[in-house]
Write a structure and sequence with these properties.
Two copies of one chain form a homodimer. Chain A is α/β, with parallel strands linked by helices. Chain A is about 40% helix and about 20% strand.
């Protein structure tokens, strides 16, 4: 058992304010969270007792949309419009990746998530088996989604993965998913709808990221991507839409009706000149919102603090209203909304019986002082530099700048450099 | 003498690429920068030799517009439009600040600059004497500008400070400045023009930050703020304009003609819903650009990495062009452009005889791997977490998370908390 005491605790339970107290971890789960109980603590046998020194303990952030293994393209394929970037810089290079490459490149991303207090990611990428292996070897929590498109993965494979990777108590889960409407022929989409129906399962996909994609779909089907995909019955059991930059009022009503989560990716949407998602309108419709970094080729960093600031700052700009989207709402998206979007019900808040997916935030740093409002400090001035510790499923994977993922960082960097070099030379 | 060896070096001299080498510091100045010369190094007596372990050495960032001591309002006065924020939340609280308060609050900001690799700041705030003292006590470089407005500071005081704080070889300089067109009666502005003429000096001010301010000036004078201020002859010797979000083509021509630097403040402009500055147009006109965080009440963090990403990401969004504003140009703004805007000619690049204002960036972190392109890594995925060391004028002020500023961090946090509490209770 691990005890973290002398902490400021933000459970993220609805309307619960930060309080001073302690938290116990038994195996993978939280066994106590509340006021300080030193007498009871003295009776226990502890593997480790951590003095938080007044720093903040809160649930880890959930990166609800990413393509982890794209680390190999970081700072290589920049400064191009979305479709050109995909077709000229991303797809040709990706075709050269081996499953083993994806294993190593995913590990590099997991390390970066840990530095940003992200305790779980939702990963859409090519080879679920090696993505899963990377997460399991690191002790990290990952929801992998299908990435079906006309050139890779098949409905049969997706069904197989769905059956393999949905065991209870595993760190890795798999959800049905396809890359996007514009990269799949109608048969694929209909097949996806059948799978969703068969398993009563949510489905994950990119949607309405750039204007050209919406225009093409309107020309092809007479419907927006949202309306077209919905007309095929794909989202009868919910799921997640990534991006949702260019949505009509009717689109948002479909999202709400189908209980689909929207995962917003503000940094990527700026960098690829896709636009700014209508977060305020989504909030008015009470749509479940989550935040993702998108992949490291389009962002280029995997940092929830940057995304959180952008969610509110861009909404303020877009609505011409400096009071738009409160910091509390942003934190909720990054933590509870992310867990919900990823279909993870046991690591959303700090509570007894929940998974111990949590982080320690260093408040004794100049950017966190003075402490008028913890939530605003986190969203408006928080930074990776404040992440002192990241724990997934009761295991400390990152602490005071050191990684505990079973591999030396230098080895991961070395592998990533070798893979990048090989692929860019081959291409 | 200090020697930093085994480094990757980015001098920021025009068109010079990063190279492997070493750098020597003698007193406050750089005495060697170039390829590794271990034999010559062996002949010297070193106070300290630092193995950079392949990490990056580059000139420090320059925060070309800020109000440091506003740290006391961080996360207190959020989520309000610019003028309401100024009139209801900022001005009444500021009126309660003592010069000593400003001393302590400025120190808190300096600590945050150090964590973000910022080696000098351009500070517009109320009491230059205690701002100067804070910087001198920390060993930090600050250009203070006048903040003349109808309620505080006088032309006489500004002239006095200009004469006191412009000694050669000092860490602290003072430049003529006023808060903004809309907070000064015409007599003030005309007095400022006379001072500029008398000393052949540049002048610093906020300009065209929000739409209402431009509209008011047009109604009052028939001219934009830029045209109106220029018509009074204030900028005959250049200076800096802060923000410049709402500028006409003619305004930009005046800026170019008067050799005025534009200091852009992207995070603040989003958070206060002021807008996005036309950076691409300014670049086309070859206007000198620099970057500022603005004060911690409007940003709320003092982080050059966030600002750098925003400069390019927002330009990409604004221009609907993912290739707008290359990372190299952004770095140039944050370093060389900042120095130029602040009238600092001796700490812009790494070169023999220049001031040793430099930083070490940790490349052995997941967000910096793989290294395809150092400049893009810095701008697109760099973070405070990568700042291993910050040196101003040859003195290490921050290294591996520790501060060397003559005061314990806890003492600075304590003071800031006390001051905030007192002021918010009084108000």
């Amino acid at each position: 058992m691990i005890r973290i005491y002398n902490a400021k605790i933000l459970t993220m339970k609805e309307d619960e304010k930060p309080f001073d107290g302690e938290l116990w971890i038994n195996g993978t789960q939280i066994s106590y969270v509340g006021k300080s109980i030193p007498r009871e603590a003295a009776k226990q046998k502890w593997e480790r007792q951590i003095d938080a020194k007044g720093n903040l303990i809160m649930p880890g952030f959930k990166n609800a949309h990413t393509h982890s293994a794209m680390t190999f393209l970081r700072s290589h394929a920049d400064d191009l419009p979305l479709l050109q970037w995909l077709n000229e810089q991303v797809f040709p290079y990706e075709a050269k990746l081996t499953p083993e490459d994806i294993y190593h490149l995913s590990k590099l991303a997991i390390m970066e998530y840990l530095t940003s207090g992200i305790t779980a990611n939702c990963d859409m990428y090519l080879t679920p088996d090696t993505i899963a292996q990377a997460s399991l070897d690191c002790g990290y929590r990952t929801v992998i989604t299908g990435a079906l498109n006309d050139f890779s993965q098949s409905l049969e494979e997706i069904e197989k993965w769905y059956r393999i990777y949905n065991q209870k108590d595993s760190l890795v889960h798999f959800q049905l998913g396809f890359h996007a409407e514009y990269t799949n022929r109608r048969e694929n989409l209909m097949g996806m709808a059948e799978l969703a129906q068969k398993y009563h399962a949510p489905v994950y996909t990119h949607n309405s990221e750039g204007k050209p994609e919406v225009k093409q779909c309107l020309e092809k089907t007479g419907m927006t991507p949202t309306a077209y995909m919905d007309s095929l019955g794909i989202f009868n059991y919910g799921g997640s839409f990534y991006h949702c930059v260019h949505m009509t009022e009717d689109d948002l009503d479909i999202v709400k009706k189908r209980k689909i989560s929207v995962v917003t990716n503000p940094a990527s949407n700026l960098k690829l000149a896709s636009g700014i998602a209508p977060i305020t309108e989504m909030m008015k419709k009470d749509i479940c919102l989550a935040i993702g970094t998108d992949g490291p080729a389009s962002n280029n960093c995997l940092d929830m603090f940057r995304e959180m600031f952008l969610v509110t700052a861009l909404a303020k700009y877009k609505e011409d209203d400096a009071s738009a989207v409160d910091a509390k709402d942003v934190l909720k998206m990054a933590v509870v909304g992310g867990a919900r979007a990823m279909n993870l019900t046991d690591c959303d808040v700090l509570d007894i019986g929940k998974q111990a997916d949590l982080i320690m935030i260093d408040l004794q740093q100049p950017n966190m002082q003075p402490i008028h409002n913890l939530e605003k400090n986190l969203v408006y001035s928080g930074s990776k530099q404040n992440v002192k510790m990241t724990m997934t499923a009761g295991k400390i994977l990152y602490e005071n700048g050191e990684f505990f993922i079973g591999t030396a960082p230098e080895e991961v960097y070395q592998k990533a450099a070798e893979i990048s070099k090989r692929i860019l030379q081959e291409a």
